[in-house]
Amino acid sequence: MKKYIYLAIIVVIVYCFQSFFLAAGGIGADSLSYFGIASDLPNLVTNLFPLGFPALIKFCHFIFQDYFWASKMLNISMVISMLLFSYFKQFYFRETVLLFTGKSIFFALNIVSSEGPFLFLLYFLFYFLHERFHDKIKSGTFLLGASLIMFLLFTVRYSGIYIYLAIGLFWMVMVIKRKAFAPNFDLFRFLVFSGIGIAAYLCFNFLTFGSYTGEHLRGAPTQYQTVYIYRNLLGMANVIDPFIGLKPSSNSFTSLAFQVLILIVDLVLLGYLIKLYQRRKNLFTREFHHLLWVIAGIYTVALFISGIFQQIEEMNVRMLAAANLCLFFSFLLIYFKGLKSDRLIFRLSCFFLGFLTFYSLKSPANYLENKAKIVEQMPKFKSKKYLYDNEHNQKITATYYFPVLEKSFSYQHTNSQKGFIKQSIAGTVNPQIKWLKYDTVPDKSSILYTSELVLK
After folding, report:
1. Using alpha carbons only, what angle is made at residue 74 by residues 163 and 327, rounded to the nearest 5 degrees?
2. Ordered DSSP codes for 313-369
3. What is the pLDDT of residue 207?
4. Which of the 8 DSSP states describes residue 211?
5. Which one of 59, 94, 200, 427 has the largest count of C-beta atoms within 10 Å of its C-beta?
6. Per DSSP, what are the bridge partners of residue 411?
7. Crossing angle of helices 67-89/2-17, nearest 10°?
8. What does UniProt give as the signal peptide span (predicted)?
9. What pLDDT is recorded for position 215?
10. Is the N-terminal amide bond of 42 cis, ω within 30° of 0?
């Protein structure tokens, strides 16, 4: 157990310092939207994103008076809380530590995004469901805790509704197939109470903004091409893999072929997971794992369908983090049942924690230094209302050389582009200057263009 405590300490250190070496500090366009909503509170301006995450940022901002530090402390507090909870509650501590070596939690809690608190809450939903399925907590405790968490999941990300629907589908199947399944009535009450909370939030949105989830603000997909459906299908298959989530943005033949190789790895891994389950299925309560699989499947397919009808990101690690967490947690619980030696999984997890860390820092920078330079310049732009990256066509290309193969390749990292970095930092320093995706505001004097900011 000591080695998992040491690994947990390493995880906290890595998660604490990693974003300091990212040029934009782990802050992207969505982060700026959340900062903007948080800075507007208590005034309600938009429901494009639910209020849960902005409210958390606002609370932390009262303490730190800086949006970067507010989000940073929020992320690291969630990491520490999950690890301490697991350790003191004796809720699969080894498995929980290893979750932090996987791609989903790593990327969700090292950037500023709603996926971080979403996965945090989802983990605690796992706890309440698991303990009730194993009759370790009372019905009232489960009903109160699980219903509240389900409601909060929806207030953090609207996609929480897919988790709710998946649990509802699981309940229906269990009622039909297993009438004697003890938690059935508790699940029904959970669906009723959390459903009332979700319905109340949707009504609040409609009465306040005139739409349920800001659906009129997203619009139709900008590009509906076969190659993007192909990439999305590959992304959906990759939800199986707990560690590897490489997905180049290029649509070149080499890039797409590389993703097919990842698909082959995913399918081999799926075959191994099925065989592992078959060998050990008599060692654990299967219903809990079946529920996790249903959630993962429904969540993945529902997001894919959503992407067809509205403008959301393609199926990548961040978008499918919740589904991947369900499968990874299920796999770890099964893997450790009847295990004689954990040497392989421990070493593999340590390797991928290192790999993910170095991969995310492949172009290291000093965020705090970059931030300090932008902070000095921001007072003279107080009158600006909008922020626009007008340097997105000025691409910076990184070249990587492989000595053994004697080959090199070039790649344009979105997060390393100067315009993106300036926009991310400026929007963090003053979220009241709202970022623009397109330069469509008639009054150009109200726009802060990134070219007006100096970052060397």
Report:
1. 30
2. --S-TTTTHHHHHHHHHHHHHHHTTT-S--HHHHHHHHHHHHHHHHHHTSS---HHH
3. 95
4. S
5. 427
6. 398
7. 170
8. none
9. 80
10. yes
Q: What is the mean pLDDT of the segment spanning 164-183?
A: 88
d(CA 31, CA 114): 8
| DSSP assignments along 109-160, one per residue | SSSSSTHHHHHHHHHHHHHHHHHHHTT-S-HHHHHHHHHHHHHHHHHH-TTH
For residue 362, the model assigns a pLDDT of 85
Please answer whether residues 390 and 339 qualify as being in contact, where contact means their C-beta atoms are separated by less than 8 angstroms: no
What angle (nearest 5°) sits at the alpha carbon of residue 111, between those of residues 9 and 77?
Answer: 45
Token duo for residue 39:
């800075």
Contact 167, 194 (CB under 8 A): no
Which strands, in side-by-side order, build the sheet including 447-449? 434-436, 386-388, 447-449
Q: Up-side HSE of residue 266: CA atoms within 13 Å toward CB? A: 21
> What dihedral do alpha carbons 55, 60, 66, 68 form, nearest 10°?
-80
Among candidate residues 135, 156, 140, the one with its CA nearest the CA of residue 193: 140
Q: What is the pLDDT of residues 36-90, one digit of tens each?
A: 999 999 999 999 999 999 999 999 999 999 999 999 999 999 999 999 999 999 9
Q: Read off the tokens for 92.
A: 């699969």
Q: Among 297, 280, 184, 189, which residue's Cα sits nearest to residue 239?
A: 297
Nearest Cα residue to 115 out of 292, 299, 351, 346: 299
Which tokens is 115 given? 């996926």
Q: From the centroid of its chain, how far is CA 140?
A: 30
Predicted confidence (pLDDT) per residue in 280-334, tens digit: 888 888 899 999 999 999 999 999 998 887 777 888 999 999 999 999 999 999 9
Token pair belonging to 293: 């699989």
What are the tens digits of pLDDT across the range 372-409?
A: 999 999 999 989 999 999 987 776 665 555 555 555 55
Q: Is the pTM of this model over 0.85?
A: yes
